[in-house]
Amino acid sequence: MNSIWTKDVKIQSFHELTGDIQADTIIIGGGIAGILCAHLLCSRGIDTVVIEKDRICGGQTKNTTAKITSQHGVCYGRLIKHFGVDAASLYAKSHEEAIRQYEEIIRDLNIDCDFEILPSYLYAVSDDKIIEDEFEAAKKLGIPCRTSCHTSLPFAVKNALEFKNQAQFHPLKFLGALTQNLKIYENTAALDVRDNTIITNHGNIKAKHIVVATHYPFINAPGYYFARMHQSRAYAVAITGGNTLDGMYYGADGGYSFRSSGDYLIIGGGEHRTGENKEGGRYSELEEAAKRFFPDCSIDAKWSAQDCVPIDEVLYAGLYSPSTPDMYVITGFNKWGMTGAMVGAGVVCDLITKRGSEYEKLYSPSRFNVPASAEHFLADAAESVKGLSKEFLGLPKTTIENLPNSHGGIVEAGGHKVGVYKDENGRAYIVSTRCTHLGCQLEWNPDEKSWDCPCHGSRFDIEGKPIDNPALKPLERMH
Ligand SMILES: Cc1cc2nc3c(=O)[nH]c(=O)nc-3n(C[C@H](O)[C@H](O)[C@H](O)COP(=O)(O)OP(=O)(O)OC[C@H]3O[C@@H](n4cnc5c(N)ncnc54)[C@H](O)[C@@H]3O)c2cc1C
Ligand code: FES
Is 219's C-beta closer than 6 angstroms to any atom of ligand 2? Predict the structure, then answer.
């Protein structure tokens, strides 16, 4: 299932690494975070190389909805409560600056990427108070905003909070232009990092600085990101025959996300923790919603992606861990990776070039804010215990024979628990259901036909090949 962005842009391809090399800085991961970081470092004269395990922009970035906004759902009241007014102001300021940085880069490099300045609205269909509270919080932080119950959405809202001067763009047109001036190796996977050397599948790379921008970090220790971040999936459809909206919209009380792009209207939603979608039906829910809003519309594309959610819901950018003085990380964008990647790349670039950043402390991966983290920390820990213990529980009652064609699920075969997908011709693809990251039990995702892990969000295809981090190794194939 491909997003509309991949339909009209073909990003230039790059050779794989052939043998050992050296560079000042190596970025691992060619998504928006890695590419922006490489761009900022190169513009400060730092010799930088990006390595990407598949194709650049082929991860979550190709499936974003690409709203560039500091309006991150219902967030500012919570940030003030847990971090205080000063830190919440810094958060808002950094993401506002990120929008302006996009504008500057696009203007300076003359990039044709459908960049548009538009308002961003947080709307509620039933809970007026949620908008009023967020409005008060935003005003306290000096964010230019106002409320109104008149929108261009195809249904009535109770209230909506408008942030002015936000933006949207075509992410792949933008990144395709930036990558033309970068040194990139594709199909080159980092397998391990030992001091200042990255071990890849095509040679070793020595670097003074290493930046891990792999969406979910793949190195378990040090750092232990798996203990403080889970992943959450969301789905989108693009339709024609709907309204063109006057801005970007995000539901505060469970509603859908909307943005226009040329003739398309993108509707997003169906969010769930990765590994918790056994029943499926996320795309059909979005398609039904689209038909309800615009009965004559046609569904032109559908796709999904996932987000890294830190326990305190604030991104991590800085040293990978206090014991790795030359290794950095940019991750944990919690649904907002367009401004998040720009902010994170800026912090890491300032650290590498020793410029000092006012945002260093707020986004430091070493912070631990107990009140902000407690709720998610406990929920994540409970989920991991559940996922691990499930793998050792009794055998399922279903067998391979009972599984209909074009379906997947966990079944009993020869006294073992196995994961099976039967294609439309009845051919069975059988894999172990034990996640190769830390051993949790995988669950079948019928919407994506993939095996997904509820613990930290690794995903595998029907043949067991890893799709999403943190797992690196394939699932065991069974016969
Ligand atoms: C449905 C949906 C809609 C969204 N819409 C918005 C939006 O409107 N606005 C917004 O701000 N954010 C949005 N987001 C979030 C945003 O899209 C992501 O946060 C962002 O794209 C993540 O970028 P990334 O560079 O961290 O990850 P990726 O794009 O996944 O890049 C990471 C790269 O690292 C590579 N990699 C992984 N491991 C290795 C390895 N070992 N060696 C080499 N390479 C490796 C991967 O192959 C991948 O290409 C949305 C998210 C979802 C789920
Ligand atoms: S992703 Fe960590 S155990 Fe599966």
Answer: no
